[in-house]
Design brief:
The complex is a heterodimer of chains A (364) and B (321). Chain A contains nine helices and 20 strands. In chain A, the strands form four sheets. A six-stranded mixed sheet of chain A has the order 6-7-8-3-9-10, sandwiched between helices. A five-stranded antiparallel sheet of chain A has the order 13-12-11-14-20. With 321 residues, chain B is mainly alpha-helical. The longest helix of chain B is centred in the last third of the chain and has 35 residues. Classes of the chains: A alpha+beta (364), B mainly alpha (321). At the A-B interface, strand 6, helix 3 and helix 4 of A face helix 9 and helix 10 of B.
């Protein structure tokens, strides 16, 4: 994705250890390109915020390098980095009004007051808060405060903007709006964004690339489509969305065995008769009526049926496995069905400690 | 109804121990005792009677003194002697407050520092001396500073051991014994020592509560540590500073013990004179009048501080880029 010449930031083997034994980051490497929207996605405690704070300069890494346009910035304090941050709870200055908050950076650099005032209006317009200059911070809603925080960061024309779960405090509707808004601002300003979130939908909606993190490591880095369609591990598959992960055996290339049957698939290179996991997206599992009389496919019984608006969500038992199935077609509880799968919808993965048959009971 | 009943003990407390004493002070302040002149006369029937100044005659022996409402004490209060004392009290209290602020703010700032370890332990150490009796603490300073005290004995042994030092001190006109005590500086020292923790505590509390992410945000937006201090820490700590000033200034302007001990009676403050009126001079009326004066000064000072606080707030709001 990013070659040496258009790489804004390069994180190399970054390690952070707290209190001598807690490893927050265990050797993370990632390159971020010009005008890219990269999302760090993971559950709380996975190290995504620590990575962001290292880039911002608020945390000192134990080892590793952070190259910003080729220069190692680890020794630099935050105020000497041309990087700005939108903090989790915005960290707006309550004793200053909206315009004063936005003008905080230019005022520190003693820039011309008039020029700053017009830049402030410009920024407020960009974030959709035109005319809010004199308003007090306490009189703003969460979404408005968040926009002020973005304007306050963007006015400094950073080459890199860090966003630490900035949408976490907003309600669902506002969050959706702000996701689109952020994407628009990023495109219009041409600034590279690194966005931290634990919300996989948010990550898939906004990002050019997503880095899925767990326990201080990046498990998978790729476009939202790659991450969603071809998760490399059971953890990624599980975290990125509701999935069926089944213990399976790779019979040979392009043939995998689960639910008691052999299925043709598109993956290979695992060897023969190797235990693997397969990921089946709920919308990819097709149910066929028993009357169709198919051969060589597993049978199942519908155990539950829920109406979810766009689709129905069903749980279908086949043998000792229960599969989650999304379909626009409802099947009453107790219906006997066949389960069919297209070869390209079967995603084969290596076994990991997150695999269903190795998972500690209760973790899921 | 229930709530009112619950507040009754406090109301009673306030009435008996705050409102009534204040009213008494006010009453004593606006009255004076007059000696009643009268003479004993023998009536025609042989009985003894008393003729008062205005000529009325009564058979009962009148009180030798009577209380009359008079503002004469207010006039007396405005005499230069007392105004000078008040002036000195204000000066000593202001100097004390300023020194406490200059010492206390940096201490509070260091204690709240990100990399400072065990701030509560250090805070304990600062407060610990305050658990000892106030008189005891002041007496220990006296034993350090008095003419035959610890400091002087150290200096003289230094002089003996190091003739050049002795020669230098002599050439500077310093006598064999250095007089530390019994002047205004000694009084200020005693006050600063006793009151500085009242400055540190409120400032520490306020700075400690400042959201650390605000400092991070300032740094992120390009503020050097100095700029972060001026733009974030200082404005947010102002309420603590004002509270600290009140906590130091009010006791400093009214104290009499420190000035008596450290000043040895040579630096009387308004508090000493008031105490005197209730003690040796036993003129409670004038003492009460002076108390009222001090009360007015303190109230005026606190009103001023509040105004500063308010103006700051308003300025924060209307300041335009």
């Amino acid at each position: 994705m990013s070659t040496e010449n258009n790489c804004v930031l390069s994180v190399r083997d970054l390690r952070v250890t707290f209190d001598k034994n807690f490893v927050a980051l265990g050797g993370v490497s990632v390159d971020i390109g010009e005008n890219e929207f990269l999302t760090l996605l993971g559950p709380s405690g996975c190290g995504k915020t620590t990575l962001l704070r290292c880039i911002g300069g608020f945390e000192k890494p134990t080892s590793g390098e952070i190259l910003f346009r080729g220069q190692n910035i680890i020794p630099l304090p935050p105020y000497k980095r041309n990087i700005n941050t939108v903090f989790q709870r915005y960290a707006l200055f309550p004793h200053l009004n909206v315009a004063q908050n936005v003008a905080f950076g230019p005022d520190l650099r003693r820039e011309d007051k008039k020029a700053t005032a017009s830049k402030v209006s410009e920024m407020l317009e960009l974030v959709g808060l035109a005319g809010f200059e004199k308003r007090k911070i306490n009189s703003l809603s969460g979404g408005q405060q968040q926009r002020v925080a973005i304007a306050r960061a963007l006015i400094n024309k950073p080459e890199l903007l860090l966003l630490d779960e900035p949408l976490g405090a907003l309600d669902l509707k506002l969050r959706r709006e702000m996701q689109l808004e952020l994407k628009r601002i990023q495109k219009e300003s041409g600034i590279t964004f690194i966005f931290v979130t634990h919300d996989q939908e948010e990550a898939l909606t906004m990002s050019d690339r997503v880095a899925v993190m767990r326990a201080g490591h990046i498990l998978q880095l790729g476009s939202p489509e790659d991450i969603y369609n071809e998760p490399k591990s059971a953890f990624v598959a599980d975290f990125i969305g509701a999935s069926n992960i089944l213990p399976s055996t790779m019979v040979r290339d392009q043939l995998v065995h689960f639910l008691g049957y052999d299925f043709p698939c598109v993956d290979g290179g695992f060897g023969e008769n190797v235990p693997v996991d397969v990921v089946l997206r709920p919308e990819d599992v097709k149910l066929k009526p028993i009357s169709s009389g198919l051969q060589g496919v597993p049978e199942g019984v519908v155990e539950s049926l829920l109406f979810k608006g766009v689709h129905y969500e069903m749980k279908v038992r086949s043998g000792d496995q229960v599969l989650l199935v999304h379909s626009t077609h409802a099947r009453p509880v107790g219906t006997q069905v066949y389960l069919t799968l297209a070869p390209e919808d079967i995603q084969v993965m290596e076994k990991s400690d997150f695999s269903p048959d190795r998972r500690v009971k209760g973790e899921a | 109804m229930k709530k009112k009943a619950l507040s009754l003990p406090f109301v009673l407390w306030a009435v008996f121990f705050i409102v009534l004493p204040l009213l008494l002070i006010a009453w004593y302040g606006v009255t004076v005792e007059e000696t009643v002149q009268f003479e004993q006369v023998q009536m025609e029937d042989g009985s003894i009677a008393y003729r008062l100044e205005d000529g009325t005659v009564t058979s009962e022996e009148p009180w030798a003194k009577k209380v009359v409402i008079s503002l004469s004490n207010f006039k007396r209060m405005l005499e230069p002697t007392y105004l000078k004392l008040l002036g000195r009290s204000l000066r000593v209290a202001l100097v004390t407050t300023l020194i406490c602020l200059l010492l206390g703010y940096p201490v509070a700032l260091i204690l709240t520092g990100k990399d400072f370890k065990h701030p509560t332990l250090w805070l304990m150490l600062i407060i610990l001396p305050m658990w000892m009796n106030f008189l005891l603490r002041t007496y220990s300073w006296m034993s350090i500073l008095e003419n035959s005290g610890i400091l002087n004995s150290w200096i003289s042994s230094l002089r003996e051991a190091w003739p050049a030092f002795d020669g230098w001190l002599t050439s500077m006109g310093v006598g064999k014994k250095i007089i530390f005590l019994y002047n205004e500086n000694a009084v200020v020292l005693g006050m600063v020592y006793n009151y500085v923790s009242f400055m540190i505590m409120p400032i520490y509390t306020v700075i400690e509560k400042i959201d650390k992410s605000l400092l991070e945000a300032a740094s992120d937006l390009g503020a050097t540590p100095g700029q972060s201090f001026l733009k974030v820490t200082l404005p947010y700590s102002l309420p603590g500073v004002l509270e600290g000033i009140t906590m130091v200034f009010v006791p400093a302007v009214t104290t009499f013990v420190i000035s008596q001990l450290m000043g040895g009676g040579k630096v009387p403050l308004i508090g000493d004179i008031i105490q005197n009126q209730f003690g040796k001079s036993s003129d409670w009326h004038f003492g009460a009048t002076l108390s009222l004066l001090v009360m007015v000064v303190v109230l005026a000072f606190m009103g001023m501080l509040r105004k500063i606080d308010k103006d700051e707030d308003e300025e924060r709001e209307v300041r335009i880029i």
